[in-house]
Amino acid sequence: MNERNLSEEEALAGVAASNMHRTNYVRGSLFVFWGALLTLTALAEYALLRWTGSMQVLWTWLVPIICGYIFSAHNARRRSIARTGFDNLLILVWGLPAMVAGSSFVYALTQPDSIVNPVGLTQVLLSLSVMITSEFYRGKGSRQSGSFVGLNMLGLFGLITSFTVTYREPFDAASGTWMLFLAVYGVVLLIFPGLILSHITRKQCSRS
Predict the structure, then answer these.
(1) Cβ(35)–Cβ(197) under 8 Å?
(2) Residue 142: which region, alpha, beta or left (left: phi > 0; alpha: psi -120 to 50)?
(3) How far apart are alpha carbons 144 and 168 in whole angstroms?
(4) How many CB atoms lie within 10 A of CB 36?
(5) How do residues 40-73 score in pLDDT, each as one tens digit?
(6) Helix-strand-coil percent breakdown of the chain, rounded to 5?
(7) Full residue range of the structural domain in which residue 100 is found
């Protein structure tokens, strides 16, 4: 009887671990994808602004963002990836800040006299999302403590530099230098966390 209960517990643990591996892998790869998209889009928009000198070209950022969303949704359906409750929680943790950040950029670009610094706001929101995501994965049972320290350090770095660097400079939409900051934050607050989360998944899978 005890052996049967033990085998059932092992089977349930294996299913739980498999679900965690799959979810971790998807989230890690999505972070890398969106980080690369944000970084490349920011650099491309900066080049277009310097080349044309027209602020109107900045609205072309909508094209890669929409295409990225369509690609992500299509890829999830093609791979038959079922969204769990944890996935939905992560989507809220990142989706809502992303919408607030996007709205702040639209407002700042359409209101020249606005005092809103959308770059600093985006940096704060991304940093907080990284730290929340770290605790989310810790709560799912992964024991890669060093990786979680790395995630929290990245989030803390983003928060500190947002107030010591980003908010010290007034937002100047015409200069375009804020897009270079966005490119850096795409690497530090999206690509690096995505690589760390993928590392957590690989280490966890190797133990199974």
Answers:
(1) no
(2) beta
(3) 36
(4) 16
(5) 999 999 999 889 888 888 888 888 888 888 877 7
(6) 85, 0, 15
(7) 2-207
pLDDT number for residue 25: 39
Reference 167, options 128, 115, 114, 131; nearest CA is 115
Quickly tell me which residue has 């027209």 as its tokens: 54
Q: Please, what is the average pLDDT of the chain?
A: 77
DSSP secondary structure of 79-121: TTPPP-HHHHHHHHHHHHHHHHHHHHHHHHHH-TT----HHHH
CA angle 12/204/125 to nearest 5° reads 105
Token look-up 């690369």 returns 36
Cβ count near 86 (within 10 Å):
17
Provide the number of structural domains found in the chain.
1
Best CA proximity match to 84, nearest among 4, 1, 34, 24? 24
